[in-house]
Design a protein that fits this description.
heterotrimer; A mainly alpha (255); B mainly alpha (66); C alpha/beta (298); A: 255 residues; mainly alpha; C: 298 residues; alpha/beta; Rossmann fold; Alpha-Beta Plaits; 2 domains; six-stranded mixed β-sheet; 36% helix; elongated; ABC-2 type transport system permease protein (chain A); transmembrane (chain A); transmembrane helix (chain A)
């Protein structure tokens, strides 16, 4: 266990030195802040941008707080997921390619602890980024748009994060199997887009889909209550995440 | 196009600060790093000229991993 | 260390086939073979970096799958975290071996001193030269005081100066540690080692102590050079009892003999009698190079 922490600490040191520890959370906070601000200024911007004759009145309904938070989550699902996947695609594969993995495994360190120490650092940094981003978004939304219960924001973010957990675990899993970081990113992004797309197209058959978690969080934000499936996607996602993590740690025939 | 509504700069300050931090870290890293994917000067231009996304692009695809 | 019928196959290709050998404590052993003979695969299996397809390894009488606690290994192309300094790297490797931070630091200091890179201890590894990296690699392998030090081609990537330094270092280390190192250069093996294990195409060819191999495989040879081609004459002496083999090329004849003294007398008499126009007459011994070439060339 002590060796696991040594490896884990090495990951954090590396993420500090290549500034991942700063820029990944900052990007989430940036996009978290941007959403309520654009919503707030949108009517003004539109009014100024369109050349309407003086005196005409345009009515643009201000979105509700819940809608703004849902939009933030949508942003995170696109740019956020893209950033996380690209940032962590090489977490194992680049060390395998460079031979660094050998330098570590010549010491009496188990392969599962090597992988899980990396996975944990990815999960913690992703969690921190998503929560900080949502917190920032919530704060500005309350300030500019209207009140929203803090506890609901936390609950929704927790549900949404399980989906992110699934995505980053899949990234680590592919990274431990493929040599090319590019393929890792491509396959993970295709999976995430495909799952989201199929889930919205065939809602009936995709109730189990991990992407349903985003819908559940959205309904919590907008209606204050979760409509639709939650338990089923939660269970499948947790099982799939555990499975991919297990598979990631099980390859050791040659390094 | 002219904006004739009040912009609350205090509100926007965090956005500007975050963008500035991203820009500075990206430039600092660019100076320190030996190799990038593609020419260095190109990345300097990208980081400086493309707001918000320039530094992000540099971090995710510009850095060469060793 | 006892290695029993170690085998590794990748699909149809057999990289190491039924390899058995033993390493005695305190000895320095060279694993000798041409490129692609299976040296690295063998070492990586011993270091638990690859799983053997078949076979077993026992260490000090204990059979296990994982000997990383007892083995220090330097890969052929060692890589380091270039953003770490030498000290940080060694402490990390020490801690990964289960040492406490304080103990790892003390040991790292000691090793950096021993390997002559103490003044570079706070420098980033990214700026190290090939020889320094190799030293750091050896330090890394020694950090947890392993019972066996394994080095994969430790000198082949180095320039002559670096090569000399590492060989001298190995001579120093073999006083205190059991060493197994792979090389494709016989000369390096002869210089630092007691024992050699020659492998060819994944199979054991010859193994034993160098002195024993010399005794067994070294032959006395008399080389005669002359002004004219001696092919015809060379053919005529092949049937002599004292001669085992004759190789004639251009103006030179190599005569492998069973007894130097006897052959010398007979040959000199013959030369005198036939008035052969010789320019030199040399008595010597074949080097192990011949044996090595024979093994590798098979």
């Amino acid at each position: 266990m002590k060796k696991w922490f040594v490896l884990h600490r090495k990951e954090w040191l590396e993420m500090t030195l290549n500034y991942k520890i700063i820029w990944i959370p900052l990007i989430f906070v940036l996009f978290g802040l941007m959403q309520p601000i654009t919503s707030y200024y949108m009517p003004e911007i539109l009014k100024n941008a369109s050349n309407l004759p003086e005196g005409s009145i345009i009515q643009i309904p201000m979105p509700t707080s819940g809608e703004v938070l849902t939009q933030t989550m949508g942003q995170f699902n696109q740019i956020g997921v893209l950033v996380l996947v690209l940032a962590f695609m090489g977490i194992v594969s680049s060390e395998r390619r460079s031979g660094m993995i050998k330098a570590i495994l010549v010491k009496p360190v188990s392969y599962p602890s090597y992988i899980t120490s990396k996975w944990m650092s990815v999960v913690l940094l992703s969690a921190g980024s998503v929560f900080l981003g949502m917190l920032a978004s919530w704060y500005y939304t309350v300030l500019l748009i209207g009140d929203f219960p803090f506890i609901d924001m936390v609950k929704g973010t927790l549900i949404y994060f399980i989906w992110i957990l699934f995505i980053v675990t899949f990234t680590v899993f592919l990274s431990s199997f493929l040599k090319s970081s590019g393929f890792v990113a491509a396959f993970t992004l295709v999976l995430s887009i495909l799952l989201s797309l199929l889930t919205s197209l065939f809602e009936k058959w995709m109730e189990w889909s991990p992407a349903q978690l985003t819908n559940a969080a959205a309904s919590l934000f907008m209606a204050g209550d979760i409509e639709g499936p939650l338990l089923l996607p939660l269970i499948t996602t947790v099982i799939l995440t555990a499975l991919f993590l297990y598979l990631a740690t099980s390859r050791k025939s040659s390094v | 196009m002219n904006f004739n509504f009040e912009i609350n700069w205090a509100l926007l300050a965090p956005l500007i600060v975050i963008q500035a931090i991203l820009l500075i870290i990206a430039l600092f890293d660019l100076v320190k790093t030996e190799k990038t994917n593609g020419p260095k000067w190109m990345w300097v231009l990208i980081v400086l000229l493309i707001a918000t996304f320039g530094p992000i692009l540099y971090f995710v695809i510009g850095k060469k991993r060793d | 260390m006892e290695v029993q019928s170690l085998t590794k196959s990748f699909g149809k290709h057999v990289a190491v086939n039924d390899l058995s050998f033993s390493i005695e404590e305190g000895h320095c052993v060279a694993l000798l073979g041409a490129n692609g003979a299976g040296k690295t695969t063998t070492l990586e299996m011993l270091a638990s970096l690859q799983k053997p397809t078949k076979g077993s390894v026992s260490f000090l009488g204990v059979e296990k799958k994982d000997f990383r606690e007892d083995i220090g290994y330097l890969p052929q192309y060692p890589v380091f975290f270039s953003w770490m300094n030498a000290m940080e790297y060694l402490v990390l490797m020490g801690e990964l071996s289960g040492m406490s931070k304080a103990k790892a630091m003390a040991r790292a200091d000691e090793l950096l001193e021993l390997l002559g890179i103490a003044d570079a201890k706070k420098r980033k590894i990214g700026g190290f030269s090939g020889g320094m990296k190799q030293r750091l690699g050896i330090a890394q392998a020694l950090i947890h005081e392993p019972k066996l030090l394994m080095l994969d081609e430790p000198v082949s990537a180095l320039d002559p100066v670096g090569r000399r330094e590492i060989l001298e270092l190995m001579k120093l280390l073999k006083e205190t540690t059991t060493i197994l190192f792979s090389t494709h250069i016989l000369h390096d093996a002869e210089e630092v080692c007691d024992d050699v294990i020659m492998i060819h195409k994944g199979e054991l060819a010859v193994s034993g102590s160098l002195s024993e191999l010399r005794r067994k495989h070294q032959e006395d040879v008399i080389v005669i050079a002359a002004d004219e081609n001696l092919d015809a004459w060379a053919g005529s002496i092949e049937s002599w009892d004292v001669v085992s083999k004759v190789i004639s090329a251009n103006d030179k004849v190599e005569i492998y003999v069973k007894s130097v003294a006897e052959a010398r007398t007979q040959l000199l008499a013959e030369i005198n009698e036939k008035q052969l126009p010789i320019t030199s007459f040399t008595v010597g011994q074949t080097s192990l190079e011949g044996l090595f070439m024979e093994v590798v060339g098979r």
